[in-house]
Task: structure prediction
Amino acid sequence: MHNKSCAISREYAGKKYIINCAGEKVPISDTGFTSRCAIGNTDDYLKSFKDYINPEIVSLGEPALISVVVPSYASENDELCETLLLLCSQKYPVSTEILVFINEPKNATKGIEIINERNENFIRFLINPASNNISSKLSKLQKRLLVALSRSRRNVALGCVRQVLSGGLAGVYQTVTASLIARTRTYCDSLVSNGDRQKKINRIEGYLQRSMLLLCDDDMEIKDTGAVAKAYEYVVNKDAIVLGRLYIKHVETIGKYNRILRDLMQLFLDFKS
Result:
């Protein structure tokens, strides 16, 4: 989670503008342009994105240096378990948390609500197994995940948030980013009792420069146990953003077109990355 500035050039009615991080249209003058990125200042950022902040995430306390967020929407239990199992198997070099973000649209069907409820109950059981005696009902994969998580608890914390959101996956990304920055700001503010603004700024910048936010879909498999550690080292040392290379195992459509569609999607991802 680095404070990288970003701006997108667009053209409206023959005039060129920059879309800054706050979503504002900033006209480009003949002498060039300047763009204020909202994330460059936490006061501006939290004011701009206050409607996206999830209080439950903010209240989690001291931020981990690696935050792995797994968006989940009516997820198949086995796919989610497999993803979490592989994430627990990573060799993390610094404090790490895995946060399952269960996203539910406002018009969710009863079926989706039931699946999300099941997944939330299972994740909260993993967080605190003593809270619910469902261990006798676990599948072999779920039992493997429980064992892997118990072994990694010294280095990895598991969390779960469920929220009704509009905007789908993009809404999840925005909520997660805004909430983690608010959490960092809240925690750093709590460490400076005398209200020294510069000390607060230094603490916040220190966390942002040493932390990484990793977004991992609930059907992704990271099989290289050193992948996250390598990404973290690159992000921190190069002040960069890392995009992983994806390999699609299968797609679900009309049977005879599955392989063709998979190959086309893979070709697109290969060119994109």
In short: The mean pLDDT is 81.
